[in-house]
Amino acid sequence: MDIRIKSRNTELTDALREYTLDKIKKVRKYFDGILEMEVELTYEKNPSISQSHIAEVTVFTKGPVIRAVVASPDMYASIDQVVDKLERQIKKYKGKLIDRTQQPRSTKLVADLYNNSRSAGEPKIVKVKQFAIKPMTPEAAALQMELLGHDFYVFTNSETEEINVVYRRKDNNYGLIEPIYQ
């Protein structure tokens, strides 16, 4: 398992690196399907908030991507809390029954950006993400969305073989968007 530790706006000392590695390695005992982990430690200087030390961990597995972010006044406390949060998410994931026969497709979303004719005042696309769309049930997609901490999730519905979007509603329930071709 590959563990990458990055820092932004803070020095990554040997003591902080060792502490982070010791804590992050504990996550392996809950889930042996981890391929790699990415840890980002950030310091944000903002006097209006006291939660300026941020620990973000992304866990790449054969199935879902699990992500946790915690901010606190102390970096070591942020690391402890993010590991606790990851452990809860992994336990939740393992407790759910997900169809293990789902195989990821090699389908990727590709975006072509032609911003040459845009004026400076108009909003423009500033970031493009590409990811494999996996066939899964809407329930599994909702779980994946929760594990990532996002408000929506794009997936291939394994029942209809169509691209769908599951999203969190304001009433804390989930919504499902299904396409209708005309």
TrEMBL record:
Its main location: cytoplasm. Keywords: Coiled coil, Cytoplasm, Translation regulation. InterPro entries: HPF/YfiA_ribosome-assoc, HPF_long/plastid, RHF-like, RHF/RaiA, Ribosom_S30AE_C, Ribosom_S30AE_C_sf. It is found in: Cytoplasm. One of its GO terms (cellular component) is cytosolic small ribosomal subunit. CDD domains: RaiA. Signal peptide: none annotated. One of its GO terms (molecular function) is ribosomal small subunit binding. Residues 122-176 form the Sigma 54 modulation/S30EA ribosomal protein C-terminal domain. The keyword Signal does not apply. The keyword Oxidoreductase does not apply. One of its GO terms (biological process) is negative regulation of translational elongation. Residues 76-103 form a coiled coil. Required for dimerization of active 70S ribosomes into 100S ribosomes in stationary phase; 100S ribosomes are translationally inactive and sometimes present during exponential growth. Belongs to the HPF/YfiA ribosome-associated protein family. Long HPF subfamily. Interacts with 100S ribosomes. This is Ribosome hibernation promoting factor. The gene is hpf.
